[in-house]
Structures are given as structure tokens and as C-alpha cells.
Amino acid sequence: MASRRGDARAARDLSRLLALFDLDGTLFLTHDPVSGRALVATLEQIYGIEVPADAPANVEHRGLTAKRIARSVLRAEGVADAAVDERLDAWCAAFAERYRDLLAGADTSDWQVRPCAARGLARLQAEGVRVALVTGNPEPMASERLQRLGLAGFFPPGQGAFGCEAEERPALLELARVRAGDWPAAATVEIGDTREDVTTAKAAGFRSIAVSSPRTCGRAELADADVVVDDMDGIVQAVLDTGR
Questions:
Q1: How do beta strands 227-229 and 188-192 pair?
Q2: What contacts 33, CB < 8 A, 6 or more positions away?
Q3: Tell me, what's the pLDDT at 3?
Q4: What pTM did the predictor assign?
Q5: Between vectors from CA 188 to CA 183 and to CA 193, what angle results, nearest 5°?
Q6: Contact (Cβ atoms closer than 8 angstroms) between residue 133 and residue 160
Q7: Residues near 70 by Cβ (< 8 Å), separated by ≥ 6?
Q8: Which among 10, 195, 216, 241 has the fewest CB atoms less than 10 Å away?
Q9: Level-2 CATH architecture, domain 8-30+111-242
Q10: DSSP count for the chain of H helices, then E strands
């Protein structure tokens, strides 16, 4: 019986790879205050507490899911984990909806996509690499961002994994692997910009490609990745080198 995650031989035999891209800091480089506003408003709505406007900025969020960030904010406000659990799914759905509503009236002309992202994704797909998104964003939120960044066409529905589907990133990585047809872990690469991206990818048996971003606190935090690069061209080359 084959290993659930595959093995090194599977990686060599496959003509294609599965490349799982993070979104924030990896493809999307701009701080988005709309997300914080939606988070605060819906925590107040669903949990019935007052949340300071700056609460999201006061907790760690790099590489974490929307649910995990919400839990951190609620803990800081004195909400017990059991109470968080009771409404977390409802909160995440409300958060995604509120984000879309707020974004509809927002000026996003200053949003920055990683330079050459579209060209790089197109090159990977032309080479036969299967591309999917793994992000802590809820799916509707990620979809809105990808549309505005001009990248939606590279990430069709039904693939990848999103922040309302699990609270912990390892579960999202596993879900994305399964959705790709139980793709072997040894033939999967994860591309992200935080230590959390690196450690969870390695724990899953994936190859880790780390890319520096405005959120990166020095390249040293990415040192455990298999490869550390600085731009989209570096990402593409590192992915293609994995398949050779």
C-alpha cells in the first residue's frame, strides 16, 4: 500500500509538481486595513464584546489563519477558548461577508502584487506545474484579492485551502494536497514568506521555498527553508529546480 504522503521516488517520477502559494506577503504585498476593520466589526457582532480598533495589530498574524488571529484577539479581550469555539465558524463566515462589503467601497489603487507574479505563474503552468493557493484568508476574501490583483485566473475554484476551513495551517496544507488528488507530499512545494510557512511545509513533508517580503524580519527567520529567494523569478527557478 502506497504511503499517504508519497516518497522521494514519487517526486522524481512525477512529470509535474504541485506548487502551493501563500497569498499575503507572497503574492500580495500591501497592508490591507479593510481586513482589520472587518475583523473588529464582526468580532463585536458575533461575540457581543467591544474590541479596540487596533486589536488586530497587537497580535501576531503573519502566516496564521483568520480563525487563529480571531482567537488571539478574543483571548486578549478575556474571552475563554470554549466560548471562542462556539461561534468561530459563524464569525469566519460573517468576517468574509463583511470584508467583501467593505472592500466594495474601498480604494485599492495602491495595492501591490509581487512584481512579475502573473508572468511567473503562467511560466509554471506552461511547464506543467500544478498551482494552487493555501492561505489563512477565507475563500471569498482571497477571491476578491486575487481578482483585484489580476491573478484569479491562475487559481480555479475547488483547489487549495482557505482560512475558514481550518484554524491551523498544517490542516490547510493537508486539505490542499488531498484536493489535488491525494498528491504525494514529496512532489509538493509550498511557497511562503514567514517562518510559519516554512515550518508547517517541512512538517508536512513538502519542500519549502521562502521568499522575502515587506513582512519578513530578516532572512534569518527563513533559514530553515530548502531555498530562500527574493523575487518571483527566484520562486519560478526554485520550483522548476525541484522537479529536476
A1: unpaired
A2: none
A3: 40
A4: 0.91
A5: 140
A6: yes
A7: 39, 43, 84, 88, 91, 92, 95
A8: 241
A9: 3-Layer(aba) Sandwich (3.40)
A10: 9, 5
| Residue 13 confidence (pLDDT) | 40
- Report pLDDT for 1: 37
How far is residue 157 CA from its own chain's centroid? 15
CA–CA distance, 186 with 201 (Å, rounded to integer): 11
Distance CA 67, CA 65 (A): 5
Give per-residue burial for 95-125: e unless 16+ CB within 10 Å, then b: bbebbbeebeeeeeeeeebbeebbebbebbe
Q: What is the mean pLDDT of residues 41-54?
A: 97
Q: For 123-170, how does the pLDDT look when each residue is reduced to its tens digit (9 = 90+)? A: 999 999 999 999 999 999 999 999 999 999 999 999 999 999 999 999
Determine what percent of the chain is predicted with pLDDT higher than 90: 86
Name the band, by pLDDT with cuts 50, 70 and 90, for residue 209: very high
229: number of CA atoms within 13 Å, CB side?
A: 19
Say if residues 77 and 59 touch (Cβ distance below 8 Å): no
37: part of which helix (H) or strand (E)?
helix 33-47
Mean pLDDT, range 85-101, rounded to an integer? 98
Neighbours of 237 (CB within 10 A): 16
